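<instruction>
Derive structure tokens from the sequence

<record> Sequence and structure tokens follow
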Amino acid sequence: MFLPLLGGLLLRIAIAPWTEQRWDSYTSRLMGAYIFGFGINPFLPETSCGCPAVLNYSYPPLWLMLIIPIFRLWLAITGYTFPSDPATLWAAWGSTGNLFEAYRSFIPANLPLLDLFFKTPVMVSDVAIGYLIWLIGGRTPRAAKISLLAWVFNPYVLVIGSVWGEFDSLAALFLLLSVYCLQRERFLLSGISLGLGVATKLFPAIIFFPTVFYLLVKRSGFTRYVSSLLISTAVALSSAVIFAHGFDYLSRLLIGRSSPNYGGTPFFSGLTWMLMFNQYPIPLKLPVFLIILPILLVFFMFMFRKSLKKPGMVFPFLTVAFLGVYLSYPSINPQYVVWVLPMLAVLLVPRMISKWSIVLLSAIPLTFLLTKYNPLYLVSPALIFDENNYLPASDVVKQLWNFPPQLPVLLAAFFTVTIILTIYDLLARTQVLEHPIWSVKSSE
């Protein structure tokens, strides 16, 4: 297994310097510039200068704690000199009138090296997840095959982590490790892992209440799990206080992420079934996520209540609970499937799900991503500055990259149906329900 994992890492290293998600990568390096170039508070930049509030760091602090030493290392190697006025780093926003064009004002000459550095924790997380899938699967040839195909060499995973550079897999690693430790009854480590996941991105917190329910049913490990989780989360989040207004930032983050809205009005985007509410608005400004998710979690806990004492039910139960996010969150970006894909791969080893769940839950968001963005946009701006005026490739893209406006809605519908069928099938194969939708074949 070592050589395939090494191959996966080398493939990622080969891709990483030359590609990026231009906006997200820009905001990461902008945070480094704030701190080392101008002494600006990355959480609330408007409090340090006349900086736009929208150009702030918008995640839990653990990723920022990684950005800081990585950016400092890059500065030490390259000797990059900052401009005298920080406003020049987003000047293209003013000249174009488009916020998302701001990145064009901050493209250092050594950007490929910086992208490689920023993506290194993501690439290591990808490989570590591949190893964990194999380990949890029993270190069998089947587990190795699934780990490599469903994760390590999955084109969707490669694009999200090594092309885009999204750090979701770092939090997904902590989530998977937490569930694995819970299965092994290592409750202290499980709580610590989940706390680190929450301090990276908030989504691992989804399994907290289902896990508490599981531990209460099992009547073991509750105190160790909850105490370690709360302490590790508090310690990790408290790193935000190295900047002024850290606690104020965290409170805003929790409120904003729990119910995405724009100016107080909920918005719906990506692969959610709630896109219909853009056409037919909800009469009241309801926090949709905070209403639907608890209902789904209570339902799933009710369905599993008699099965949780059986061995091997931790992963099925928590995976089903987590899948509820995709039926309740109003904005599902294409990278969000990375959150649950490792747990689905673990469940595929003992055939608790169908391989088609992983195939479709990889293909649909990847299709969404590749049809939404100009493919030249995924190339580093250090190589292609203007993806819309890079002849002849830009002309070819303009001719071929035209898709019907109904495609995103159709993909969202397919995605929702796949999530529902996966939940149903998992319930059936764990005998919570009687019959699986997809038949289990020995060739699967």
